[in-house]
Design brief:
The structure holds 2 protein chains of 2 kinds.
Chain A: H1 9-22, E1 26-27, E2 40-44, E3 49-54, H2 58-79, E4 90-96, H3 105-113, E5 119-124, H4 131-138, H5 161-166, H6 172-183, H7 188-193
Parallel strand pairs in A: 3-4, 4-5
Antiparallel strand pairs in A: 1-2, 2-3
Chain B: E1 2-9, E2 18-21, E3 26-31, H1 37-49, E4 71-78, E5 85-91, E6 96-102, E7 104-107, H2 108-119, H3 129-140, E8 142-143, H4 150-154, H5 157-167, H6 171-214, H7 222-238, H8 242-245, H9 252-287, H10 295-350, H11 364-375, H12 390-438, H13 446-551, E9 557-567, E10 570-579, E11 584-586, H14 589-592, H15 595-612, E12 620-624, H16 632-645, E13 650-655, H17 658-667, E14 677-686, E15 689-697, H18 705-710
Parallel strand pairs in B: 3-13, 3-14, 8-12, 12-13
Antiparallel strand pairs in B: 1-2, 1-4, 4-5, 5-6, 6-7, 9-10, 10-11, 14-15
The chains are: A alpha/beta, B alpha/beta.
Amino acid sequence: MSASVPLTVTELLAGSSNVLESAGYRAVPLTGSAFAPANFRLFEDPYAIVGVAVFDTFSELRQAWPEVQGYLVDIMSAALKQTDAKAWDGYLVLLSPGIPERDAEGEVDAIRSDTVRVRKLLATGAELVASAEVERVLLPLLPIGPELRIADPGSSVLDLLPELLFEKGIERASTTAVLKAFREQRPLLEEIHNMPVE
Amino acid sequence: MKLVSLEVGGFRAFAGKHSFDLDGQAILLVGDNGTGKTSLFDAIYWALCGRVPRFDGDPNVISRWSETGEATVTLTLRRDSQQPLVITRTTDGRAQRVRFSAGEDYRDGSANDQILRTLWEDATLTEDPSRTFSVALERAVYLQQDRVRDFVEAVSDQDRFLAMSELLGVGRVAELQMQLERGRSAWTRATNVTTGDRDELAGRLSNAQARLATLPTEAPKIAAVRVEWDALLSRATRSGLGAFIGSNELSATTIDRLSRQADAQLGIETRRLDSLKQLSADLQAVTSLSPVPDIDLIRSAADAADSDVKRLQAAVTDAQRQLREVRRLKLESATQREELQTLAQLALRHLGERCPVCGQSYDHDLTMHRLTQLASGVSSTPEPEPEVTSQAIVELGNQLTTAETARVTRAAELIAAEAAIRDDASVRERIRQRAAELNVQPSDNAEQGIALLINQIQDQIESLRQIRSATEALAVSVASISEEARRREVLSDIDQTQRRLTDVDRELQRRRKTGETASRMIDALRESTSDLVARQLEELDPLVQRVYGRIDPHPVFKSLRLLSWMRGGRGRLSAEVADLVTEVRSANPAVILSSSQTNALAVAVFLSLNLGLPMRPIDAVLLDDPLQSLDDVNLLGLIDLLRRTMQRRQLVISTHDERFGQLLARKLRPVDRGQRTVIHRFFDWGRRGPNVTMTSIPPDVQRFRLVDQTA
């Protein structure tokens, strides 16, 4: 069990906003904010509408999430027709720094697994001890990009060998000569043999 | 490199010709099971590498209702805005024909090579490039519906490591290591051959040194030998041998020829000397021979002796005949007298006055007188007497014996005389012949000439013996000179061999050093394979984590890592899931996760590899019905991931579930005018293939509805 302290509600809200907006989401101003749940933010990107709700405790989350979901669905229904594809692309992110009781873990999974109306993404205190973890929770909503390696199209693992084998006592020149012969499909040992003697 | 279009005919479920527009970010194939969706994936795969891995045991891809009896697939690909690449692959069940159009046209073998070079050049470094390419496609491009979980649970740690090595390009390191090992084996064999050659060279050197020890270190001066030779030649010429030598050159051959000639001439002269000596002896024998006897006289005496014997033989025979006749007559007379005596005695006893037989009267007295005479044995006729006597016969016999002895003597004398005549003739004939052979006139003073000749020949024989002796001595000198020259050659050979041996030893030392370097490199590569996989996995790790996190299939095991390690000298790899809160880990996710979660994890690993590989054959993901056995939350998670993947890769996804089809169509909708999502619906499969309709999903161009409304 990690001994780290969970992020605060504010940190979670700010972190979520940052992550989503950095990924191309735009914050949707909440009209009639008097009816908006506390600590709720709404975001939109070309594919999806995402509501982020942060609760002080898990208990609060457990009680309030249906209401928050209803609020989100209402907003979407008001803005979109049922035939709009986006009307089916609602997401509700439920976060809480609170830690669920041991016997509530099944309930956490039940909320996660509930796909009625919108998909729910849920994380609680034990999982939320660093800002990077907010991003991990929001991953399903983020485009793929930063994590992709942009490999040099001409590079190959073989190019790493001269240095790697040098660490194991093989002269770089020998490895380079052998690799050249290997790529040109020429006899390898002749290449070593014909290397100039230092 | 993305897919643009596909044309199939006679291939698996497509007996007739079908064309598919694949030019889009997402291509959805929707239709009931058995309507040809998987055949479309197989066609893409087959066009690329000529294989369908699921049918390795039965590579026939031709539809049973193919109109041509052949299967043909044409796949068009394009990289960005570059010229399209077109692969057309055809099979008649026995052989494949391939055509590859990429600006230039390639066919068959060169087409396959060019496809590999264009799509995944890395594979060309392997022993079986086609298989390597096929494995790469299978692991990172085409996820087959019946192999979704292979990577997670079916294959061994070791197989997983090897597959991952291939995908990460580390397979080339293993290939390099394998080629080095093969090269080292061949190198060692060749070095052993060189070592054998070196030993042979050392043996040759040793033999040359041994041969050198047997050769003389000194030899007569050639000039002195030449003087001797010239003198010998003069002498030989004087002895009449010059013409036979043929050359004046001082050589073992010439000397040998002279020696042989002297020897042969010596034989001739010796035989001639013997003949002369014999002739001389014969001549002396002729003078001491007795005069030849008068053969006629001796023969007459012999004949006379023979006649005497014959005459005496006849006389003896006649006398003996006469004597035998007289004896016969005497015997007859005696017999008659005895019979008459007996008869007279009977008559005297019985005779009376009258004849007792006939009763007649007779002169009694006279008769009685006569009978009395007869009875007393007195004959009335005289006894016959022989003309010759026994004594005379004995004398005749003695004369015959003497005559026979004389005849034998005469005959012996005749034989002896005849022999003497023959001997005389024989000796004279021999003399005549020898004289003819020796060209000597057998005159009265021949013996003197012969004696002179004998002296000359003896002188010649002596001269020849000296020549022969001189040639032998000269031959020894010349042989010594030759051996001395041979010694110099052997010395030169030893020098050259030693130099070659030094070179070979140096080369062997270099070869062994090369072999040792290769061995060290092989060991280092063996160790590096694991290091490289670990390094590559380390680089891949964030992507794996984030792809897995997007599906987020498990409430607790929220972390996924691909771990490699070495055991038993072999690399191994497994997928490890972890609960980051409790730090509980498992390298066997299939045991912990549900079937749905395991499927989601397998797809996550597959997509991670597709997205994370430094090199990949095509920028597409082919997923054949990956949504089976997924529960709702994992299904949504996967679809969300696919939607994000679509921005990086072209997606070709099939589903047998119409509802999923609709969900995919909504989720993978284009959100820009430049984007395109195409749905191919498969239905009513018949012998010619399925009916297929194509629709494009219109782009959702109003990207920010809520934001726009509230703005």
